[in-house]
Amino acid sequence: MATLSAAQLREHQRDEYNAFLAQCPGHQLLATLSDKWVTLVLAALADGPLRYSDLSRTIPGASQKMLTQTLRKLERDGLLTRTVTPSVPVRVDYEITALGRTLLPIQQAIKNWAETHIEQVHRARAAYDRGDAG
Amino acid sequence: MATLSAAQLREHQRDEYNAFLAQCPGHQLLATLSDKWVTLVLAALADGPLRYSDLSRTIPGASQKMLTQTLRKLERDGLLTRTVTPSVPVRVDYEITALGRTLLPIQQAIKNWAETHIEQVHRARAAYDRGDAG
DNA sequence: CAGGATCCTAGTCGATACTG
DNA sequence: CAGTATCGACTAGGATCCTG
User: Fold this and answer.
1) In angstroms, what separates the C-alpha of B2 from chain A's closest C-alpha?
2) For A43-101, what is each residue's pLDDT tens digit?
3) Pfam families, alphabetically (chains A, B) (predicted)?
4) Does A102 contact chain B (CB < 8 Å)?
5) Chain A neighbors of B99, CB-CB under 8 A
6) How many angstroms separate the CA of B72 from the C1' of C20?
7) The overall pTM is greater than 0.85
8) Which residues does residue A95 pair with via DSSP β-bridges, in sequence order?
9) Burial of residue B48 (number of CB atoms within 10 Å: 0-12, 13-18, 19+)
10) What region does A84 belong to: left with phi over 0, alpha with psi -120 to 50, or beta?
11) Which of A6, A67, A79, A109 has the fewest CB neighbours in a 10 Å radius?
């Protein structure tokens, strides 16, 4: 017990590194951005506020659970606001915040890169899959 | 069998939508970029080629499996090259490609946003968790 | 040194049913 | 209408052992 085994040591380093990564702002943002539904919700709200059911119709791929979960996360991060109108039935509007809007150019940049270079990537994949070494 | 149940219909729409998303270049790129290790590998190679063991030391958080898997994926996408030198023992160098380099500005943009706005996000989270409605 | 193959766990996602 | 709660399927990721 004087020293740690090599495996334990590596595990320790890994944990430390991962803890460090978890704190890295870049990766926090990436974790948010990489969420499939986040981008779609943000994009959907770019044109103006929407109600829950509108969002659910705009993004048919998302289950109720995922949609709600995504909305909560974004609200928590201050990227959108949730406004409840206590009528009968209830009405809830979601609106993107100024902070959320600053994210849109980044999404756009990603989209642009993708549209510009996706062909190259696809060709590279095809070559790789063909077993093309030279 | 004349009509589909509501559940089946929704499921169908979901599938279609997800198939559409899978084809969307932006989401393909996002799927790549969002991979924790991809960013790190790309960043590590930005300064010059590295060997497998170098990478593994630079990124202690990645397991062998994840590292290899990530490298293969990036090679397949044409974002880096893998060069084997058949000496004893074998030597393998990984180098970022021109295409891969075009991705770096985007990573940088993300990093910049994160560093600029992460504070706001953290404050928003704290307020949310405090149950701060107004 | 660089990785392939295998097993296994933990978290994610979706379907379903119920509530104010 | 706008959710919440729960359960099961799936799979990404990590540990481990083994090879050229």
Assistant:
1) 23
2) 999 999 999 999 999 999 999 999 999 999 999 999 999 999 999 999 999 999 999 99
3) HxlR (PF01638)
4) yes
5) 117, 120-121, 124
6) 52
7) yes
8) A81
9) exposed
10) beta
11) A6
